[in-house]
TrEMBL record:
Residues 118-298 form the Mur ligase central domain. The keyword Chaperone does not apply. This is UDP-N-acetylmuramoylalanine--D-glutamate ligase. PANTHER family: UDP-N-ACETYLMURAMOYLALANINE--D-GLUTAMATE LIGASE. Pathway: Cell wall biogenesis; peptidoglycan biosynthesis. Belongs to the MurCDEF family. InterPro entries: Mur-like_cat_sf, Mur_ligase_C, Mur_ligase_C_dom_sf, Mur_ligase_cen, MurD.
Length: 457
């Protein structure tokens, strides 16, 4: 088991939870169990199931407002990662030196499980799920949490796992001070959420590298040696733990690489070598070779048997909304990639699919640079169907490269247009590159509406 690092936070008194989503409810229940005087505040409305959990636990809450005086009277505040540190109430709390931390940081104080933490601009959900799948199938007692699945804090309160696989966003990492990952995985760094980082890539890189914060010599850092922003960041950040890089362009030992026979080769010190033909992987495409390398390195470092790893990597089913096959209708495949909320994710999706593609994209632009898509749009995309309120940047960037580019008035309209543009053997791909909250509640709602519209064709 991992040694629990020292957390210099109050261990009793008034604790306020800002935000009553999955992480907030779990935090409140764990905090109550640990003896805090807990109160939950959400400026929006609290959904029925979460409200029932609070009522059943006897935890007081407010919704539709923040009572500032009560929040400022807290000994410690745990906030949703979606709340920026720049909002006035957080600034006031920090100004009076009240600790404002993340659910992950709070919950980690109360478990001695080994923490396997995965971040990256793209692929982290798939890699987190794949890693959890491999470890679970290999017989380890492992929980899944973070930016995916059930609340980490709730699992710490109610379960007894020996390992956790945690998907960590940059927003979560920003709110961590003493947290320590036993195994840290950094998949890649591409411009994303730069509006939250003063539109400076270096600030976003610094955020991602917080995943190695507080690591010790016995810990492990796994990273992509082919990613230029990660490699550059290594020159600016001290790595205390052992390193295991992975690459598809060069031979790396110890680490993981792709050999001349199109086999993944994984070498971890003191473990037997693992090899697997990439055609036997359940997840196809170059980006998924990287994801399997990262997950395989984690698994070998936990001393899993090769036969178990190979079976798991060949049987894994991808997460919903990430290159999720929906249906084949009149010879046209429909793929839901609603979780692709940045340009790099769309690039990976286009790269992994055969021509011809009718691409449904658009939404709330986060300062996207669509230039990297131009070659793939020219060679693989039959047409682009835009969703969302304002797609002027997509038109400005891709109109010269796309054979057809049209607007739609709803997801149902977009799917109907795409179905008419597609020919037998084509793929209709929802891969938006943008946030979803102009037309949809979230990316899940966007993906679900796509699937419903496809099934109604």
């Amino acid at each position: 088991m991992a040694a629990i690092p020292t957390y210099h936070y109050p261990q009793q008194g008034k604790l306020t939870v800002l935000g009553a989503g999955e992480s907030g409810i779990g935090t409140a229940i764990l905090a109550r169990k640990k003896g805090f005087e807990v109160w939950v505040s959400d400026v929006g409305s609290i959904s029925g199931p979460y409200k029932k959990q609070l009522l059943d636990a006897g935890i007081p809450f407010e919704e539709g407002m923040h009572t500032e005086s009560r929040i400022l009277d807290s000994a410690i505040v745990v906030k949703s990662p979606g709340i920026p540190n720049t909002v006035p109430i957080v600034q006031k709390l920090k100004g009076q030196h009240t600790p404002v931390i993340a659910e992950i940081e709070f919950a980690a104080q109360y478990t001695n499980a080994k923490l396997i933490c995965i971040t990256g601009s793209n692929g982290k959900s798939t890699t987190t799920m794949l890693t959890w799948h491999i470890l679970s199938q290999g017989g380890l007692n492992v929980g899944l949490a973070g930016n995916i699945g059930r609340s980490f804090a709730l699992q710490v309160a109610q379960e007894q796992y020996d390992y956790y696989v945690l998907e960590l966003s940059s927003f979560m990492l920003d709110d961590m001070e003493y947290f320590r990952a036993d195994v840290a995985v950094l998949l890649n760094i591409t411009p994303d959420h730069l509006d939250r980082y003063d539109h400076k890539l270096e600030n976003y890189v610094d955020s991602k590298f917080r995943i190695i914060r507080n690591q010790q010599p016995g810990d492990l850092f796994i990273y992509c040696a082919d990613d230029p922003n990660t490699v550059a960041g290594l020159g600016e950040h001290h790595v205390a733990g052992a390193i295991l890089p992975f690459s598809i362009t060069e031979k790396i030992e110890p680490g993981a690489y792709l050999n001349d026979n199109n086999e993944i080769v994984i070498n971890v010190p003191h473990q037997d070598t693992f090899t697997m033909d990439i055609n036997e992987l359940s997840l196809q495409g170059k980006h998924n070779v990287y994801n399997n390398m990262a997950s395989g390195l984690v698994a070998k470092a936990q001393e899993l048997r090769n036969v178990s790893m190979k079976e798991s990597m060949g049987s894994f089913k991808n997460i919903p909304h990430r290159l999720e096959f929906v249906a084949c209708i009149a010879g046209v495949n429909y793929i839901n990639d609603s979780k692709a909320t940045n340009v790099n994710a769309v690039w990976y999706a286009l790269e992994s699919l055969a021509p011809q593609i009718v691409l449904i994209m658009g939404g709330v632009d986060k300062g996207n640079d669509y230039e990297m898509l131009r070659d793939l749009v020219q060679t693989k995309v039959r047409a682009i169907v835009c969703i969302g309120k304002d797609n002027s940047r997509i038109y400005d960037s891709l109109e010269e490269d796309a054979r057809i580019i049209v607007n739609s008035s709803s997801m149902r309209d977009a799917v109907e247009i795409a179905s008419h543009l597609a020919q037998k053997g084509d793929t209709v791909l929802l891969s938006p590159a943008c946030a979803s909250f102009d037309w949809f509640k979230n990316f899940e709602d966007r993906g679900d509406q796509f699937k419903d519209a496809v099934m109604d064709l």
